[in-house]
Every structure is written in C-alpha cells, then in structure tokens.
Amino acid sequence: MSKWLEEHLPKVVLAPSFIAILIFVYGFIAWTGWVSLTRSRLLPKYEIEGFIQYDKLFASPRWDVAMNNLFLFGFLFIGISMLLGLVLAILLDQNIRTEGAIRTIYLYPMALSMIVTGTAWKWILNPGLGIEATVRGWGFESFTFDWLVNPDYAIYTIVLAAIWQSSGFVMALFLAGLRSVDTEIIRAAQVDGIPTWRIYTAIIIPSMAPIFLSAFIVLAHLAIKAFDLVIALTGGGPGFATDLPATYMYAMAFSRGDIGQAAASAMIMMAVVFTIVVPYLYSELRAKND
Amino acid sequence: MTDVTHSAARTQSRTGQIVLRWLLYVILCLFAVYYLMPLFVMVTTSLKSLEEIRTGSLVALPREITFDAWKTAWSGACTGIQCDGVRPFFWNSVLIAVPGVLISTLLGALNGYVVAQWRFRGANIIFALMLFGCFIPFQVVLLPMARVLGLMGIAGTIPGLIFVHVVYGLGFTTLFFRNYYVTIPAELTKAAKVDGAGFLRIFWSIFLPLSLPIIVVTVIWQFTQIWNDFLFGVSFSQAGTQPITVALNNIVNSTTGVKEYNVDMAAAIIAALPTLLVYVVAGKYFIRGLTAGSVKG
Q1: CA B270 to CA B94: how far, in whole Å?
Q2: Where are chain A's structural domains?
C-alpha cells in the first residue's frame, strides 16, 4: 500500500487541482453552453431548444452596441498602448540616468484596481468640476470636454483610462525585449555607420516579434475582460452607450434575471477569447516540446 | 585651418546632441506628469474641504489641509444603507486575500513541482488544460458558480470567495512554479531518489529552499489579483462580506445626499494602498510576475 502510494504520490498531489479545474472550468463552460441553448429565464431550464437565445442576442440593439464597443475599444486600446509602450521603451533605452525612477512612475497604475482607476478618472473627467471646469477657470470660457456624459464619446473615456493603466506595462515588456537583443549585432551595425533609427526599424524591432505577440495577447485579454473599469467610470452609460459584452452579461445575469441571455453572451465572449488565445497557446506549447 | 573647422563642426554636433538629450528628458518628464497626474489629483482632492473643491481648481494644491475626508472614508461613509466607511470591507478583503494567496501558492508549488519534475504520461495535456483555465473570461463560469456555491452552503460568505479565488488562481500559480522548476536539472531529482529520498522529502528539502524568488513573485501576483478583484466580489458576496473594491464602487456611485468627492478619493486611495505598497517595496518582483504571466517562457 505504502509502496503504491509512494509511486503514485505525484499524481495524487496533482489530482485535486486537476479535478477542480475540470469541474470549475470545463464543466462550467459546458453548463453555460448547455443553458445557452435553452429557454431559461429566471431559473435555468435544461430542455434544449436550439439557438433561440443567440437569435435573440444578435437581434438585440444593446448587444450590437456592446460588440461594436468591444471592437472599437479593443482596437484603440491595443493599438495605442502598443505604440505608446514601444515609443516609451525606446526613449528609456537611451542610457537614461534616472531610468529606475521613471520606470516605477510609468508602471505603477498597473498595481491599481480598475475600480480605483475608474474612480479617479471619473472625477478628473466630470465636466462640472474636472478638466473642463479647470480649463474654463483659466479663461477659456467656451472650452468643452464632456466626453464622460456624451453618448457619442463616452467610450473614448474608457479607452483613455485603460491606456493610462496598461501602457506602462507594455513599456516594461518592450524594454525587456530591447535589452534581450544581441548587442553584437547592434554594435556591428553601429560600426558600419548605420543610423540609429535604421538599427531600430531594421534590426531591433523585427527581432521582437514574439514580444509584440505576447503584448497583444495580454492586452486583448484585458480588453475582453474589461468590466470593472466600465462599471466604475460610466456604469455602462449614458444609456447603454458604453456597454461591453462583459457588462451586458452581468446585467442579464444579475439584474434582468435572464439566464439564457447571460449564458449566450458569455459563450460569445468565450468564443472571441478562444479564437485569439488557443492558436497562441498551441504554438507556445508546441515550440517548447520540440 | 582644417583643425578649426573640424572642431567647430564637432562642437556643433555636440550642442545638437545636448539639445536632443534635453528634448528626450523633457518628453520623458511630460509622460511622468501624465502618469502621476491622476494620483496627484486624488491625493490633493482628498485633503481639501468640499467648499474648496467647489470653488477651487482641480490641479491646485489644497489651501488648507484637512483629514476629515479620510476619517469619513475610513469609518463613516455610506455604502448603500450601511454607514461604517470602508473599514469593515478593508478587513473583508484582508480575510479573503491572505488565505486565498497562501492556499493557491502552496497548491501551485506542489502542482508545478509535479508537472516539471515528475513527468508522467498525460502530464503535458493536464498542464495545457490548466493553462487554458487562466485565459477564460470569467463571465462563462459566473452562473454555474453561483449555483454551486449555494449547493456547497458557502454562497455570499468569505470562505466562498476564498474558494473561488483559489480555484481560478491555480492555473497561474501552477504556471509560475512549473516554469521555474523546469529550469532545475532533472538529475538533481534522480540523484536524490537514488539516495532514497521520496517525493515529499525532495520537495521539502531541495525544491522549496530554492524557491524563494518564485514564491515572492507568485504571492505578489495573487495578492494583487485577489485584492483588486471586482467581478467575483460583486457576484458572490452579500451585504456584510463585500470586498473593498465593491464597497468603493458603492460609495462612489451612491446617489443619496451630497456628492463628497474628497471622501470618494480618500476611499479610493485606501483601497489602492496595499497593492501600491507592495509595488513600491517589491516592484522588481511585481514586474517579473507580470511578464511571467504574459511571456510563457
């Protein structure tokens, strides 16, 4: 008995965690998928009815807004964070004497809860007492900056706050990448008299392709999960103007009592994440086994 | 003559370089201002009186520093009908985060040790399945989790929230330790086995003493994740068990009475302090966790 245990102890140790993941990740995904095919409202039902919840979802104007917001927000947030992160990393890579302090300042927002970030920006962006009032106080009486309460622009306040929170992290990723480029090649290029900007565009940046991919995956993941920030900054409003799939799902699950819609919207979110993450994980794990 | 023009050109390019250098520092400083501005506004607003906030400017320093807003935020601000400030919720977060971090880190260490050093058939698939668990949008598990917590009798309790955080933290903690232990040569384990040491003995006497850096990274990562969590907190808590992020959101978005911006800001800083402190004290490990969580190396 004890010999059997000693032999199988590794599996016995791993088993509880693995079973937990099987049930609480994969079992739960299956449950949500199943319920998304039923007529569940306040309570789950288990008779499969087909794709009625998805039909209803795709016909819903509010879901339409949420998906459009996700793509707009995701595109701007990922694009600008990457660009800003890369520029800051390159600037910081020029033998800056106070690099440590500057890096600390650029990256600290990543340690904050998105609720804190949302609270701070909500205060800064509120038209009555925030930036708008301040600039008007300086004598620019007609200055308007009411994005937070303007349904057409409110989504951009989410982009603004999200970039503030995450761009420092992208900078840190890229800075690590810049430092890992072979210095021999760079020195050889310098000896050949190639200008610095050419060294960056032709040698250093192309060799950082894996880091671009990592940064993209992390940011895309943050964008799809963005929920706290919307709740704290705009609450999804004005109206439903800043709804994202995550807030739509939450509203259906916990305030509208529409479990079928909540499950269907969660499955669509899952599908979006799946299409981005699975190829990445597959290539990463395969590369390691080779 | 040639010497003179030569050195003139050199001085010119030297001044050019100095100007460029200055420009670089100016740009870097402007960005530092951009990142610091919200924190600055939060701190100054929390130290102003409501009167001064209404009449003064967003970016002005407080004319008269008052800590009233901090006192109110800590023990008097209203979250819905309850008016005890954020203090009880701060302790809720501590009660959730400390056991949550400890349990998920310990399990992650054991799992990582098995996956990296005791390879058996299917270990890779098990690891891949656990890894994917890190990436799911948690919305997809909210509904069944709410029901299962009810069935387990821990719905709306702090143990319930600890359980949720441990389960969905396992993927990352296992990943961290696995990636760390994979770099330790397998010969070490083999040699120890030849000497008669068993599974747990090898873990306890060889691997654990080597693990301090990765333990620090994992603890910081898990603490930041759990402390800053909002989705699980708002979905699986009830009136007395809410974590501080939920309480902060309730204070800020409560619509009754006068809007006390200084109290909102003080409450937000209190909610941010523990993770900020961790970041300032152990920033190096914090960054390593972030990059380890993204670059699956």
Answers
A1: 13
A2: 53-289
Q: Within chain B, what is the greatest distance between any pair of CA atoms? A: 93
Number of Cβ pairs closer than 8 Å across A and B? 255
| Per-residue pLDDT reduced to its tens digit, A241-265 | 899 999 999 999 988 889 999 999 9
Residues within 8 A of A (CB atoms), B 165-184 only: 167-168, 170-171, 174
Tell me: domain B87-294, CATH 1.10.260.40, correct? no
What is the rounded distance in angstroms from the CA atom of residue B230 to the CA atom of residue B247?
A: 10
Contact between A266 and B145 using a beta-carbon 8 Å cutoff: no
Distances (CA, A) of B58 to A133, A143, B35, B65: 8, 15, 16, 15
ipTM: 0.88
- In whole angstroms, how large is the CA radius of gyration of chain B? 26
How big is the CA angle at B197 (ends B196 and B201), to the nearest 5 degrees?
165
- The percent of residues in chain A predicted with pLDDT above 90, rounded, is 46
- Domain A53-289, what fold? MetI-like fold (1.10.3720)
Which residues make up the CATH 1.10.3720.10 domain(s) of chain B? 87-294
Phi-psi region at A236: left, alpha or beta (left = phi > 0; alpha = psi -120 to 50) = left
Dump pLDDT digits (tens) for B237-246.
988 899 999 9
Residue owning tokens 């978005």 = B253
Residue B257 identity (one-letter amino acid): G
